[in-house]
Amino acid sequence: MTSVQAAPFPWSDVWGQEAAVQTLRQASADPASMSHAWLITGPPGSGRSTLAYAFAAALIADGPDDEATMRQVLAGTHPDVTALRTDKVIITIKEARALVERSYFAPSAGRYRVIVVEDADRMVERTSNVLLKALEEPPEKTVWLLCAPSEADLLPTIRSRVRALRLREPDVADVARLISLRSGVDEATAEQAARHAQRHIGMAQRLAVDEQARSRREQSLRAVLGVRGVGTAVEVAGLIIQAATDDAKALTAERDAAERAALLRTVGIAEGQAVPPAVRSQVSALEDDQKKRATRSLRDGIDRVLTDLQSMYRDVVMLQYGRGDHLINTELRDELAALADAWPVQRTILVLDAIADTRESLERNVAPLLAIESLLVTISSGRTP
Asked: pLDDT digit string (tens) for 48-84?
């Protein structure tokens, strides 16, 4: 088990990444250790973005005692930080060009200008090429921080122009301890959330505090275990899509309403007042962005269900090989043990391959309902359709 110790500010929210923090602390203090572009990679929930913003704060501040500047950076209000956080399916060329243009501005108040791209893996090839020149010939005081799950998610031309920093995957005990400290939930709930989230800190936090999210997860897994043919496959696929849709709406509805209210306040329109024609284009643009974000949120929700299914059938394989000591879904041990006895291991591996193929198909815009139906038919029959 790895001990979880908080580093000095602004690194105090980065947990379980002592080696990475040490590397970036040294770089922020010693120009000889600096690079003009960094690629921070690690599994979902490992803290890539948290680490990137802590690094940005240390770079921009005038030394480790300049806490006021660092807090401004972490709050997202410092003029020398430009961040791209996308809730949409891809990062657009327009967004990339705006970042490049911003990167050529000299720092206005801090030591550096920092450009943070939280989901660099959501750039298609044409968009990535927009960044190349800025990465090849960066201004002296500009630093790029790209975040992605792995180096393979970016083009080789991008990878060759950045310094890569790989984060470690935290232990379940580390994540559980962090979640318990942050949310105040009991140790058992925190441990279960960390285990079910497969050490993804953000998802573990949500499972720990949201009983409905925990319930939807359990219902989805048990429903899949109950699939016995094409008829139930179609029915359960519909339930999974509906659950993912409800999950996405729960995550986005409150934020959408707050954004709309903030926009209307900015242009001086009171709540309930009709939107004048001059402002409708701004409202329409906001609604378009929210629709794109809803699409991404739904895809992410379906992908979370598939990730949970992978964990379940991974447990089956572990049991089939006599390794029942590190199960993710211990609450389903009896059902999974029965499945492990009933199936040959080759069938379980086929199911795991089918889940991976389904995740890739959804990234290629295959209709979600059809993709899930096909997957469940494979699970119930042991054969690909």
From this structure: 999 999 999 999 999 999 999 999 999 889 999 999 8
Which residues have a Cβ under 8 Å from the Cβ of 216 and sit 6 or more positions away? 243, 246, 247
Q: What is the dihedral of CA 12, 18, 19, 24, to 10 degrees?
A: 10
Q: Where are the beta strands (DSSP E) in the chain?
A: 37-41, 81-84, 113-117, 142-148, 163-166
Do the beta carbons of residue 2 and residue 16 sit within 8 Å? Answer: yes
CA distances from residue 144 to 44, 91, 105, 232 in whole angstroms, order as listed = 20, 16, 13, 50
Determine contact, residues 185/213, Cβ cutoff 8 Å.
Answer: no
Pair 310, 353: CB distance under 8 Å: no
Q: How far apart are CA 163 and CA 108, in angstroms?
A: 25
Q: φ, ψ for residue 307 (rounded to 5)?
A: -65, -40
Instruction: Of 243, 223, 247, give the one whose Cα is nearest residue 233.
Output: 223
> What single-letter DSSP state applies at residue 140?
T
Query: What is the length of the chain?
Result: 385
To which residue do tokens 């990679």 refer?
41
Each residue's pLDDT tens digit, 202-226: 889 989 999 988 998 999 999 999 9
d(CA 280, CA 37): 40
Cis peptide before 156 (omega within 30 of 0): no
Return the exposure string of 58-71: e unless at least 16 CB atoms fall within 10 Å of the residue's CB, then b. bbbbeeeebeebbe
C-alpha 72/C-alpha 57 separation (Å) is 8
Which 3 state secondary structure label does DSSP give 199? coil
Contact (Cβ atoms closer than 8 angstroms) between residue 377 and residue 385: yes
pTM to 2 decimal places: 0.70
Half-sphere exposure of 319 (CA within 13 A, CB side): 24
Strand segments (E) across 42-170: 81-84, 113-117, 142-148, 163-166
